[in-house]
Design goal:
Length: 243
C-alpha cells in the first residue's frame, strides 16, 4: 500500500536535523536496521512482523481511519477528564506515544504513533494488542531492539514502520513530521484522511505534557515548537480544532 506524504512535510525534517545537529546517516541506519530486524526476526511469522503482515495491518488501519467520521488525536498534554466528553458517533482515537495511558479504559484507540519512549504506557497498549506505528530515528536503535525482544516474548504486536529519511521502501514509510504528535497527523494525512475530520486533545505547545516520556524540559519545548510548525503546514486552523 502506498502512503502519499506531503513533500513539504518530509523536507522539513532536514531543517529539524540541522537545527538540533542530528546526523542524517544515523536516521538512515536506524530505518534500514528496523526493517531488517522485523522482516528477518526469528519469530517474524508468529509475531506478524513480515512485510506482508505489516501491509495487512496498514490496510486495516487505512480502512478504519478513512472510514471514520471524526478522528481525535490525543497528545501528551491530555488530562483524563479531557476524554470524558460526549463524542459523536463514528469518532475514533489515535494516541501519540505515552498519551495512550490516558486513553485506556476511557476511549478505544485505533493505533499508537510512537518513537518508543512512552513507557510504561506503551507496554499497557501492547497488552491490549493495540497496533503501533513505530518510528526509527538515529538515537532509538537500542530502544526498538529491546522492544522487539520484549514484544516477541509475549507473542508480538501489529506493527507499521515509519522513518525520517529520503530512502523509499515498500514496507516502511516517511509520512513527514517530527514529533509523535505531529507525525500522527502526518500519518492520517498520508492515508488520505481529510484534515476537516481531525481534532486535537492534549496538544500543548507551551508545556511538557504529563504523558511525555523522560525528557529534558527545555529541549522538549523546542521540539514542541517544531510540532506546531508542522501542524500549521497541515492545517493553519488546527488550533481551533483543539478540544
Amino acid at each position: 500500500m502506498r502512503l502519499d506524504a506531503t513533500p513539504l512535510l518530509v523536507a522539513l525534517q532536514h531543517e529539524v536535523r540541522a537545527h538540533f545537529g542530528w546526523g542524517y546517516e544515523a536516521d538512515q541506519r536506524s530505518a534500514a536496521m528496523l526493517r531488517e530486524a522485523c522482516n528477518h526476526h526469528p519469530q517474524a511469522e508468529a509475531c506478524g512482523w513480515t512485510a506482508e503482515a505489516r501491509e495487512s495491518t496498514l490496510s486495516l488501519l487505512h480502512e478504519t481511519l478513512t472510514g471514520a467520521q471524526h478522528i481525535v488525536l490525543v497528545g501528551a498534554g491530555v488530562r483524563e477528564d479531557d476524554l470524558e466528553q460526549a463524542w459523536g458517533e463514528g469518532t475514533v482515537f489515535v494516541a501519540a506515544d505515552g498519551a495512550v495511558g490516558a486513553c485506556l479504559d476511557r476511549v478505544e484507540v485505533v493505533c499508537v504513533v510512537s518513537d518508543l519512549d512512552g513507557e510504561p504506557h506503551l507496554s499497557k497498549a501492547v497488552e491490549r494488542n493495540i497496533p503501533l506505528v513505530i518510528h526509527a530515528h538515529g538515537d532509538n536503535i537500542d530502544t526498538w531492539k529491546a522492544c522487539l525482544t520484549q514484544w516477541a516474548s509475549s507473542g508480538g504486536i501489529p506493527l507499521v514502520l515509519t522513518h525520517q529519511c529520503d530512502d523509499i521502501y515498500e514496507d516502511a514509510y516517511n509520512v513527514g513530521g517530527f514529533t509523535d504528535g505531529d507525525r500522527a497527523a502526518c500519518f492520517l494525512l498520508a492515508l488520505g484522511v481529510p484534515v476537516e475530520r481531525l481534532s486535537f486533545v492534549g496538544y500543548s505547545t507551551d508545556r511538557v505534557g504529563p504523558w511525555s516520556g523522560a525528557t529534558d524540559p527545555e529541549r522538549k519545548l523546542a521540539k514542541l515548537a517544531w510540532m506546531a510548525r508542522v501542524l500549521d503546514l497541515i492545517d493553519p486552523n488546527w488550533v481551533q480544532r483543539r478540544r
